Amino acid sequence: MRYNWSVEEISQLFSLPFNDLLFQAQQVHRAHFDANSVQLSTLLSIKTGGCPEDCKYCPQSVHYDTPVEDQAMLLKNEVLAAAKEAKARGATRFCMGAAWRSPKGKDFEHVLELVQTVKDLNMEACATLGMLSEEQADRLREAGLDYYNHNLDTSPDLYEDIISTRDYQDRLDTLKHVRSSGMNVCCGGIVGMGESRKQRSDLVAQLARMEPHPESVPINMLVKIEGTPFEEEEALDNFEFIRTIAVARITMPQSYVRLSAGRAEMSDEMQALCFLAGANSVFYGEKLLTAANNDEDHDMKLFNRLDIRAESSSTPSTRLIA
After folding, report:
1. Which is deepest, 19, 34, 66, 79, by most CB within 10 Å?
2. Catalytic residue among 179, 249, 258, 263
3. Which residue range(s) make up the domain with 299?
4. Which residues of the chain have pLDDT under 50?
5. Is residue 274 annotated as part of the catalytic site, yes or no?
6. Which member of 141, 171, 179, 186 is catalytic?
7. What confidence tens digit (pLDDT) does each residue in 93-116 have?
8. Residue 187 annotated in active site
9. Residue 90: per-residue pLDDT
């Protein structure tokens, strides 16, 4: 397993002829995973809006006038009902997101209770709550949390143009605490925020140089939300997005590469190419925090057309690792 990818090497992968890149990515994918299987995760916003951060892509920020309305933290019975429904529809992992800079006080204690609620359903539990201290990461792990999501978002040199209320090292520190606690790391980024191909290469390099690699790597296409600074951002070319999936697969062979935000705007044909490029996980459900997502029936019809099976478990035992 390699952890020393350079930006130049990754840029060279991006520059391969499209067919050659996908062929290489598919070979890597088949060496480590069932090529016709996809892991399903469901994401629920347990506390919406009112976030003090100024991430330019996010409609939950207090800095922007967007259609998202602030909502108080969900009660245990509301989260339990959503998790049960997700499991009934085939999801194996239930992810909870809260619009915080970092969790505090009674809110954090409530999250610990919600983690146990999900675990009692025999589902994998994931959370994205902002920055964590070392102690918070340890307590989440003790509560049974399997995965913690904390994306790098973009390359280090573009980061300060996207977010000013925290720096890149803040994100790396949280990821260090998560890894040290023994939890699995879910970490990826967003493409289509005006970055260059070299900056996309740099984002992948940051992820691929983590040792070990993140167990889950969500690749998000920017969703342009009214009221955010990226509302009028030029759309990223679809083939460039597919290339990003393929490069992530090649450089992080044993990671689950997840199609995340932006999938509602993707055609079935584009998603099929993403699966060919090595994507093997999706967020499953009609909503991703505040953004629309494909409905479950449509997803299942697409999986049936492609003869793709939903995984019954996303534990490492399902992988085809030599």
Report:
1. 79
2. 258
3. 7-306
4. 287-290, 292, 314-322
5. no
6. 186
7. 999 999 898 999 999 999 999 999
8. no
9. 83
Which pLDDT does position 261 carry in this prediction?
Answer: 87
- CA atoms of 14 and 16, how far apart (whole Å): 6
Q: Which of 93, 95, 139, 171 is catalytic?
A: 95
Count of helix runs (H) and strand runs (E) in the chain: 11, 12
Residue 291 inside a domain? The answer is yes
Residue 188's nearest CA partner among 206, 163, 165 is 206
For 178, the enclosing helix (H) or strand (E) is: helix 168-181
Q: What's the pLDDT tens digit per position in 194-251?
A: 999 999 999 999 999 999 999 999 999 999 989 999 998 999 999 999 999 999 999 9
Q: Which of 2, 30, 55, 179 is catalytic?
A: 55
Identity at 153, one-letter amino acid code: D
2 falls within a domain: no
How many domains are contained in the chain?
Answer: 1
317: in domain? no
Contact 147, 184 (CB under 8 A): yes
CATH number of the domain enclosing 134: 3.20.20.70
- Torsion, Cα 243 247 248 253, to 10 degrees, reads 130
Catalytic residue among 93, 126, 139, 141, which? Answer: 126
In a domain, 311, yes or no: no
